[in-house]
Specification:
Elements lengths: L1 H15 L2 E4 L6 E4 L2 H13 L12 E5 L6 E2 L26 E4 L22 H9 L7 H11 L3 E5 L6 H15 L10 E4 L3 H15 L6 E4 L4 H7 L8 E4 L1 H9 L10 E4 L2 H4 L5 H8 L19 E6 L6 H5 L8 E5 L11 E6 L5 H15 L4 E5 L3 H13 L5 E3 L5 H4 L2 H6 L5 E4 L12 E6 L6 H8 L12 E6 L2 H16 L16 H9 L1
Parallel strand pairs: 6-11, 6-12, 7-9, 7-10, 8-9, 10-11, 13-18, 14-16, 14-17, 15-16, 17-18
Antiparallel strand pairs: 1-2, 3-4, 3-5, 5-13
């Protein structure tokens, strides 16, 4: 009898496209229904009095005012199935005022996955002692993977979520190598770390100086906006072990013959997705053409030794092959990436509001006033897409007596200097900024990100959202995005689909692709 019922249940479940399993407690069959089937049964239940309502399992994943579009974490969606979207009709002006939220599925973010010890990585004992003095005792998983690869002479592309320890993943092997080499009286740098902004450069320089303070290694930073004398000053004096620089400032020093890159042991491109975009790609190519990048471990030995290359980012950079193919063998680059790369963070609530452009300012003011009243001392980042919007919005906040700071790339260097540090120290709780503050900066005190302007790309969204819920943060973090334009809706639909399917965001690079040879294309067309 039981076997007959079970076979009938299996046949019925297959016809409906559902999944049949057995409860371990009572050995009773439990049928998991796809979302579409559940919605159909619920709609039929409303039509028939006394019909059974299908229970929905798990935490509420997607919440909206239209309850039929809510989704719980226990509900599944097929690989090729298009889930129902709240944002599907958002291109119509009648959708203004609609909203939905991707709710957090756990209270706090994961702790760094640590394993083993730094002693097991065969590091210089002096370096291990310096790490211990900084209370850094156990490597994270990205450090456990990247440090041995770099020690073995490989070029590395390392892509993992924010806060996973990528800075030390390349700094530690750099310092280890420098300690094993005899000191060089030359003032030319032995290691180069390129960064897209002065703020990130200052932060990395601070970490490197703390690590090298007891080891007798020198660290200097060269950033733009301070004039020729300030740049030249950084290349005077004793030997230079680690140089942190922005591309523009370094290129000026190269053109003025103040620095030579022929003595490098390491070249690091930090926040590589930004360095390889249209803003910096030509500068990066010009700098790399003045270096000698190794293609194999044997290139790191002898008088004519070449430099190792480390490419670092929280998202996989686009178009790297086009430039790197000119300076090294692409096959020499080992890719190390996180399993959660390009996924939405499950411990951060993400709210999307469809608004008329004129209503964004009112919504922001209400949000900031509530934040100041309910969460004093917590940081808020308000992102705009351009400097003029940052300044305009700043004037509005001034008129309403809301204390804040502003940060964008068009500010004079003497005004811009120290703004983010002031925000980090809690002297100001609200920072209105462009994407210059979304890349790599330590923002542990931030618990709210507001996209006043929706970001232009999915990579930008991930970087902005990555400013909250960082590893080690105890904040109940939230990202609030104002959606006003039709082109914004296209990105929101991709984000909502990924959230409902629990998949990575679509269309992002996941591997190094060989560049297309334009000469071959022309030949094929002629044929």
């Amino acid at each position: 009898m039981h076997a007959y019922c079970g076979s009938n249940l299996r046949a019925w479940s297959l016809k409906l496209g559902c999944f049949l399993r057995y409860s371990t407690a009572s050995n009773l069959p439990v049928i998991q229904l796809p979302i579409r089937t559940q919605q159909y049964l619920e709609s039929r239940g409303k039509q028939r009095a006394g019909a059974v309502v299908v229970p929905r399992s798990g935490k509420l994943l997607i919440s909206t005012r239209r309850r039929e579009l809510n989704q719980f974490s226990g509900e599944t969606c097929g690989l090729w199935q298009q889930p129902p979207l709240v944002s599907r009709g958002w291109k119509h002006r009648e959708s203004r005022g609609d909203y939905f939220a991707i709710n957090r599925q756990r209270e706090h973010g994961p702790r760094p996955e640590t394993e083993g010890s730094f002693q097991s990585l065969s590091l210089d004992p002096r370096l291990v002692s310096a790490l211990d003095s900084l209370n850094i005792n156990t490597p994270t998983w990205i450090q456990k993977r990247a440090i041995p690869a770099l020690q073995q002479g490989r070029n590395v592309l390392c892509a993992s979520e924010t806060g996973s320890g990528k800075t030390l993943a390349y700094l530690i092997p750099i310092v280890h190598t420098l300690l094993s080499q005899t000191s060089d009286p030359s003032t030319d740098p032995r290691s180069l770390i390129l960064v897209p902004s002065r703020e990130l450069g200052g932060q990395i320089t601070s970490v490197a100086k703390k690590l090298c303070a007891q080891l007798g290694l020198s660290v200097r930073f060269v950033g733009g906006g301070h004039g020729r004398k300030a740049i030249e000053k950084q290349f005077h004096g004793d030997s230079l072990d680690i140089l942190v620089a922005t591309p523009g400032a370094l290129l000026k020093a190269l053109k003025w013959d103040k620095v030579n890159l022929s003595n490098l042991h390491y070249v690091v491109l930090d926040e590589a997705d930004t360095l390889f975009d249209d803003t910096f790609c030509e500068l990066i190519e010009e700098i790399l053409m003045q270096t000698q990048i190794a293609s194999r471990a044997s290139d790191l030995e002898g008088i004519d030794r070449k430099a190792q290359l480390a490419i670092i980012g929280a998202t996989f950079p686009r178009g790297v092959a086009k430039i790197l193919n000119k300076v090294t063998d692409l096959g020499s680059i080992e890719t190390i990436k996180s399993k959660r790369l390009h996924f939405l963070m499950p411990h951060v609530q993400q709210v999307f509001k469809r608004l008329k452009g004129l209503n964004k300012t009112f919504e922001l003011l209400e949000l900031l006033k509530k934040q100041v009243a309910e969460k004093p001392g917590k940081g808020v980042l308000v992102f705009c897409n351009n400097a003029s919007t940052v300044n305009w919005l700043g004037y509005i906040l001034d008129d309403h007596g809301i204390k804040h700071a502003r940060l964008h790339a068009k500010m004079p260097a003497d005004i811009r200097s120290g703004i983010f540090e002031t925000f980090q120290k809690g002297q100001c709780d609200i920072l209105v900024c462009t994407d210059i503050a979304s890349r790599g900066l330590d923002s542990l005190r931030v618990d709210t990100v507001v996209n006043f302007d929706f970001p232009p790309t999915l990579e930008d969204y991930l970087h902005r959202a990555g400013r909250v819920g960082r590893l080690g943060s105890e904040n109940q973090s939230v990202v609030v995005s104002f959606v006003t334009h039709v082109w914004d809706v296209d990105l929101v639909q991709k984000i909502e689909t990924a959230a409902r399917k629990r998949s990575s965001l679509p269309g992002l690079e996941t591997r190094i692709k060989d560049p297309v040879n334009s000469d071959n294309i022309i030949k094929e067309q002629k044929v």
